[in-house]
Write a structure and sequence with these properties.
By secondary structure, this protein is of the alpha/beta class. The chain has a 12-stranded mixed β-sheet with strand order 7-8-9-6-5-4-3-2-1-10-11-12. Strand 3, helix 3 and strand 4 form a beta-alpha-beta unit. It has 11 helices and 12 strands.
Length: 330
Amino acid sequence: MLIDSHGRKVSYLRLSITDRCNLRCLYCRPPSDWTFLSHEQILSFEEMFELVDVANVAGVEKVRLTGGEPFARKGFIPFVGRLHAKYPALDLRITTNGTLLAGRIDEIREAGISCLNISLDTLQPRKFQEITGVDGYDLVRASIDACLKAGLRVKVNVVALKGINDDELPGFVDFARTCGIDVRFIEFMPIGYQSRWSRDNYWPSQEIISEVEKLVPLEEVLEASRNSGPARMYGIAGGSGRIGVISAVSNHFCESCNRFRVTSDGKLRTCLFSDKEYDVRSILRNPNHTTRELLDLFDRANREKPMGYRLLQEREKNQVCERSMTAIGG
């Protein structure tokens, strides 16, 4: 088991499949001078499979596959199927922008996925293009509908942007209530090189919930699983959907953090707000490496895992993390 000096146990791995993405969201990728990692720098699927093997030995119970955009990488769905076949009890999830799912929903379900997190920051096509740089709103909405029709659970992730999508709260509440889905507002975080983050477009979670309560009665729902993630969820009266907030800036959840992140180029990060990385790739690519070496690296990284809110407080006036969110894997 990976238990750190604060008594936190790692049971959740976020694994970035690729840094490539077909969108250029204003809060994620820098506006210019962007270069994707080369093929040689990215972990192979075999290396990622071994990484999950070792994480399972270390007590990881949940794996979230992220990007960039994971479906942009060829062979991604068969890789998911292999993971599910070997570890049927593993809680295997995917976060996607939803633009590349057309015609693949049955494949995804057959690979063992029952729930998808889909990013959608606006319910207006023109604003979608302004936020992402791509005219893809209809693709995402069609993907959500197709997932629901196929019986997949959908969670919609919305980056909360003051002055950009804060006027759409009634629409998102209605979307959650009528479709029976979770809509989760994620506080805009000061992360990444050339990020557009500023206090002017920071929309705190407590303000979001206060505004939602003016629209509909809410009742907080306590998640049963320790691997449910950091979202605080609220049931909507008269509907099956829920509203959630992830308050990484205003109300940190460091004390209960149970996750590691591994970037697509094989760097282990114990905290989203820390630039410290541990080189998993060099071990995986040593032909004489052992499982023990990887476990020892995990253990060392975990012992050095910080309280992220302290880093955020120290660097509040500066960008936190040199790498962009698409490179980190969110």
